[in-house]
Amino acid sequence: MKRSITLAAVLAAVLGSGSAWATQPPSAKMLSLNCASCHGYEGVSVGPATPSIAGMSEEYFIMTMLDYKDGRRPATVMDRIAAGYTEQEIEIMASYFASLQYRPAPQPFDEVKARRGAEVHEQSCSRCHSENATVAEDDSMILAGQWKPYLAFSIEDFNAHDRAQPRRMRRGMVELSDEDVEALLHFYASQQHHERFMGQ
Amino acid sequence: MATLNRRNFLKLVGAAGMAAGLPLAAHGGSHGNAAKARVVVVGGGSGGATAARYVKKLDPAIEVTLIEPNPTYHTCYFSNLVIGGLLPLDRIRHGYDGLRRYGVNVVHDMIVGIDPVSRKVRGESGRDFEYDRLVLSPGIDFKWNAIEGYDEAASRIMPHAWKAGDQTVLLRKQLEAMPDGGVMVLVAPANPFRCPPGPYERASLIANYFKGHKPRSKLLVIDTKDSFSKQGLFQQTWDMYYPGTLEWVRAADTNGGIRRVDTGTMTLFGEFHRFKADMANVIPPQMAGRIAIDSGLADDSGWCPVNRRTFESTIADDVHIIGDAAMATTMPKSGYSASSQAKVAALAVVDILNGREPGTPSYANTCYSFGAPEHAFSVTGVYRLEEGVIEQVAGGVSPLDVPQEFRRREVAYAHSWYNNLTHEMFG
């Protein structure tokens, strides 16, 4: 019984419209290739600023794209781009990028600042951005090994109150000096060899 | 294997005759090497390099051959930064070793004939290349003498610099040699042409160079149009940075722009106007790359009609045409568009060769322009197929009237865009 209903539904969908095949959403591969030209081959950006999006959690990817699409997050270009995709397409892309291996950016950093930044991170950030901010399941960007200019832009937006953030993140960030923030960026930039990034 | 009959080649056959007379024969699909399908990609620019890489990646069992006459490729995008003295030429130069490492067979030859009946292309070297699917990414060629007196020889005196490389260097050298107080004329073409914002980015970065090094010099942009890409953003930039240095003259003010040039006297003529220049950059009207025209794959417009779902030529079977040469509805002729179309075509080629129905396409374009070294802005578009045409569903240009920090961020993202786009193509 159940099977016959399903079959009928499929037949109706196929026969009902001559262009039923054309209304299928594009494949995950097709959609994600649109992102690669700026965010890098397989979501790993060669920089210097555009973030890598490989390995991002599905939930964070979807939230980010919907925030851009609906104008809730400041952007230079992503608001204009996100508006072009349906929620279904965004979910397809999210699942695809979540399956890819994140790779940290090979970028210079200052070791003294990075050591100081490790302390700042431990004190102010580590309760949510766990394991040195390497965990996608924390439902934020993976901060470790992310391109420094992108992280700096994000912090500027948070501090300018242009970008929404959890209240306790706000409380933590107001206590950071410019030097603390600078040190944090160098700490995240220094996280290029974490075991989580060595997969595949 | 029978030797190819030269008469089968479409070289130098009139386009109109071709369109009517091309035999659309079905093929048995059999070829000597039964296990592998063969894809030949002609043209190693943004479209061709991307297509070759992705066909190989999506189905490593397919034999992919990329045929390109030059050992290196200079991107047209970012070449204005070289002309403006902001980047060295080698920053926009790319080789083909990356594609070779991915398993693409790269051959340096110039394709001079296409035979879609026996599915072969012929190189200038005399060598034939057989294919099951051909991807043609021939870029543009110029309509010499469409502006009277502007032919290939004239382009060595008044460079076009609209194909990057030697012409880029020539224009840069002329700028360096021009005396302070000189007048330069830049001729911008009518639509459609490669890189719609390109002439205005170039004008901006030349004006920036004048301002820093030859402050008494002037740049006159004589346009063949009354409006242009990212116009509001460019004009805002020009008011901010280049008043008195850069002047844009719309087509209506010269009755349609420059019609004739005389390289001997360095004079450019409108219908009623004449401009005496110390140097000139003439960007002439354009058409699909020569091989597409000579093979009858373009229509009367000079561009190649394609099925937008797969980028298969509507004139010849088993041939996909991508990039500047293809008629892709509203997608601008840009390196990013070429790359996007290459991905759509690569997925379609692999689906077809594996006996699958090609999936739903999705297209995108993003292009950055520099108005000044620390001042960039973008245009973007997301496109989908609607009843056979490519419809833009979202996008647009950067907002006017934003803090300078916004423009500086777009500079950083412009460099990332360039690096990731070319890294994806060339490794």
TrEMBL record, chain A:
Heme c 2 binds at C125, C128, H129, M169. GO terms for molecular function: electron transfer activity; heme binding; iron ion binding. It is found in: Periplasm. Binds 2 heme c groups covalently per subunit. Residues 22-101, 112-192 form the Cytochrome c domain. Residues 1-22 form the signal peptide. Transmembrane segments: none annotated. Heme c 1 binds at C35, C38, H39, M78. The keyword Cell membrane does not apply. GO terms for cellular component: periplasmic space. It holds the Pfam family Cytochrome_CBB3. Keywords: Electron transport, Heme, Iron, Metal-binding, Periplasm, Signal, Transport. SUPFAM superfamilies: Cytochrome c. Its main location: periplasm. This is Cytochrome c subunit of flavocytochrome c sulfide dehydrogenase. The lineage of its organism: Bacteria, Pseudomonadati, Pseudomonadota, Gammaproteobacteria, Chromatiales.
Automatic annotation (TrEMBL), chain B:
Pfam families: FCSD-flav_bind, FCSD_central, Pyr_redox_2. Keywords: FAD, Flavoprotein, Signal. InterPro entries: FAD/NAD-bd_sf, FAD/NAD-binding_dom, FAD/NAD-linked_Rdtase_dimer_sf, FCSD_central, FlavoCytC_S_DH_flav-bd, FlavoCytC_S_DH_flav-bd_sf, SQRD, TAT_signal. Residues 168-284 form the Sulfide dehydrogenase [flavocytochrome c] flavoprotein chain central domain. It comes from the Bacteria. NCBIfam families: TAT_signal_seq (TIGR01409). This is Cytochrome C.
